[in-house]
Design a protein that fits this description.
Chain lengths: ~400, ~220
């Protein structure tokens, strides 16, 4: 702790920094006699105590009261002059001491204040840190919530599109199953004719008798028809098998693995699977160029193409055209989906990427929303652009970069 | 707080002249030094820069002996009024036994007066002075100038204040002793209990005031 600048200064304090040997020699030179300076307790601070009877002494007063005295074997007027001189010296020293002590005091106080503020600042910094941490946690939680909401949105849209697809696929499969079923009952009715002939053969009937029955049962027709209905049934099961195969592309939507896939093949499968939905509403034209395999998530891309196809179908007021066109340009696969349906006005175009935005009636808008489509394309490092004119149609352009395919 | 030095039988009382820059604190001290006839009057120590602005403080020592032989020593300080010297103001104000607040009467200075007074309250609290019990006089200085607040206006503004208000023209020495006189009885009352002025030292309130300024009974008011 620095000294209080306004403390009472003693003679000893005031002689601080004054060369006492030099002071003594100078005083003795002036007075031409031995000199001593004593404090108020009589302790000698400068020179040697003087014993002589004739010694004169004068008080030293810096402020109001005596703080010591000068003694010398000298005439009083000269001693008075010397005392004045010393007092002058002490006053100047007092001034300096007080100013420097005050300076130290304020420095210390300012420093203490600074430290106090520093500590306060550190405390508030810690509070802010803690606050920032909880905020960060909350943000993380919110992000998680939003992500899971997005996944749910995606899942629900996917489910909706699967539902719509299932209806079409059921129809597509029911048709062949219908005629295979009727073919098989026809075939089993033909068994009765065969059984009659079989009975005659067992009873050892003559060739003439056999021929009569053969003709009566119209076996020539039966043989040919059986061939036809079996061929037709085989065809039917092949069709069912093909549909099931195409469906497989969609059954793997939830698999996270990427693989090398043929975009053109995915488009063909999508068109096949959706055939029932398209029939009678639009004609699909495929203009599929030569493109390399793409390392991608085929199930997700299939969902995108299916959604775009469905959007096209939904845009038709009379039978229209939907075209898929694929091309390779500078290591990028360009996929255009163009329809000549009703198109969209500017006011709708600005909202198409808003989640849950739809112009369709409830229950009709099936398939992924464009937001989810865009996210899937972005996840493949690609881009998607939509141009549309009312009453002319819509063009969706997708660009997917062909990445170096990891070989395995 | 006043400091009793038993060895030298001395009581040091610290009085501080506070107020905005250039209000006349240093001038008050200089005139007191000229006018007062206190038994013991030291030399005035001025610590100013070239253009008369107090840099650290000014100090005027005054004193007299009580009948008991006790030396009563006043140390009158001024603070630097300039806003930047707040740390110094705080250090000088610390342990004060009484304060004279020197306000500048000029109309243009009202805001400065107000800010400085608030600063006095703040700093008193910071250095541990109980402001409500602090002996205080508010002096409106520079009454000789034109364009000053009238006495009525001043009294109206300070109506609710408990402190004595004095008017002065320190440059001409008018009102400085009256101001000092208005502070002294408060100081006596504040310290009497602790130091037994009347009981131990045979010093009445009137004598305390009279001797502090060096008025003999016949002088009347200076
Ligand atoms: N006209 C007039 N001028 C005065 C009066 N008192 C002081 N002054 C002048 O005002 C100026 C400032 O006076 P100071 O006593 O130095 O003021 P201060 O309050 O000590 O100022 P700081 O040390 O800067 O805080 C000087 O020029 C004084 O002469 C007064 O009563 N009337
Ligand atoms: Mg000053």
């Amino acid at each position: 702790m620095p000294n209080n600048f306004d403390r009472e200064l003693t003679l000893k304090d005031l002689l601080l920094g004054i060369d006492s040997h030099r002071l003594l020699t100078d005083l003795q030179g002036l007075l031409d006699a031995p000199v001593a300076i004593l404090d108020s307790q009589g302790i000698c601070l400068v020179g040697e105590p003087l014993a002589s009877e004739s010694t004169a002494s004068l008080a030293l007063v810096v402020e109001l009261e005596s703080i010591g005295k000068i003694t010398a074997d000298a005439p009083v007027p000269r001693l008075q002059a010397a005392t004045d001189l010393v007092t002058l010296l002490l006053r100047i020293n007092a001034r300096y001491l007080m100013a420097s002590d005050l300076h130290m005091q304020t420095q210390q106080a300012d420093f203490d204040e600074l430290q106090r503020r520093h500590i306060a600042l550190e405390k508030s910094e810690q509070r802010y840190k803690a606050l920032a941490e909880t905020l960060e946690q909350r943000v993380k939680q919110q992000v998680k919530t939003i992500e899971s909401a997005q996944i749910k949105l995606y899942e629900s849209e996917k489910l909706a599109s699967v539902g719509r697809l299932a209806a079409g696929v059921a129809h597509e499969i029911n048709n062949p199953i219908g005629f295979i079923r009727s073919n098989l009952s026809t075939a089993s009715s033909y068994l009765e004719s065969l059984n009659k002939i079989d009975a005659l053969v067992e009873s050892g009937a003559s060739a003439a008798e056999l021929r009569t029955v053969w003709h009566a049962e119209d076996m020539a027709f039966l043989q040919k028809d059986l061939r036809d209905i079996l061929d037709e049934s085989i065809n039917g099961t092949d069709r069912i098998a093909a549909i099931v195969r195409d469906l497989k592309g969609f059954s793997r939507i939830n698999e996270e693995v990427d693989e090398n896939a043929d975009i053109n093949q995915i488009i063909r499968q999508v068109c096949n699977v959706a055939a029932a939905e398209i029939r009678g509403k639009a004609e699909v034209l495929l203009d599929l160029g030569e493109i390399p395999l793409l390392h991608c998530h085929p199930g997700e891309l299939g969902q995108v193409f299916l959604s775009l196809l469905m959007n096209g179908v939904d845009a038709m007021s009379s039978v229209g055209k939907i075209q898929f066109r694929t091309r390779l340009k500078e290591d990028r696969i360009h996929i255009d989906v163009r329809d000549n349906g009703c198109g969209m006005p500017e006011s709708v175009l600005t909202h198409i990427y808003d989640p849950f935005f739809t112009t369709k009636e409830v229950g009709k808008g099936m398939g992924l929303g464009l937001t989810v489509c865009l996210n899937i394309i972005k996840a493949h490092d690609g881009g998607m652009e939509i141009k549309s004119k009312p009453n002319q149609g819509t063009l969706v352009s997708i660009i997917l970069p062909v990445k170096a395919v990891p070989s395995c | 707080m006043a400091l009793y030095d038993e060895e030298n039988n001395k009581l040091s009382i610290k009085l501080v002249y506070y107020g905005p820059a250039q209000s006349g604190k240093t001038t008050n001290l200089m005139r007191l030094h000229d006018i007062l006839r206190t038994d013991l009057k030291g030399e005035i120590m001025l610590m100013e820069t070239a253009n008369d602005r107090t840099l650290f403080f000014d100090l005027l020592p005054l004193g007299f002996k009580a009948p008991s032989g006790l030396l009563i020593k006043f140390k009158l300080y001024t603070v630097p009024g300039q806003v930047v010297h707040d740390s110094t103001r705080k250090a000088v104000l610390s342990r004060a036994d009484g304060v004279v607040f020197v306000a500048d009467s000029q109309r243009t200075q009202s805001v400065n007066n107000g800010e400085s007074f608030a600063n006095l309250e703040d700093n008193a609290a910071r250095v541990g002075i109980d402001f409500d019990r602090l002996p205080l006089v508010v002096q409106f200085n520079k009454r000789d100038l034109a364009n000053i607040l009238s006495e009525d206006e001043v009294m109206e503004r300070w109506r609710a204040a408990p402190w004595p208000i004095t008017f002065s023209s320190a440059l001409e020495g008018q009102g400085v002793v009256e101001t000092f006189n208005a502070l002294l009885p408060q100081v006596y009352d504040r310290l009497d209990g602790e130091f037994g002025f009347q009981q131990t030292h045979g010093l009445s309130r009137d004598d305390f005031v009279r001797q502090s300024t060096g008025q003999t009974a016949v002088d009347g008011i200076a």
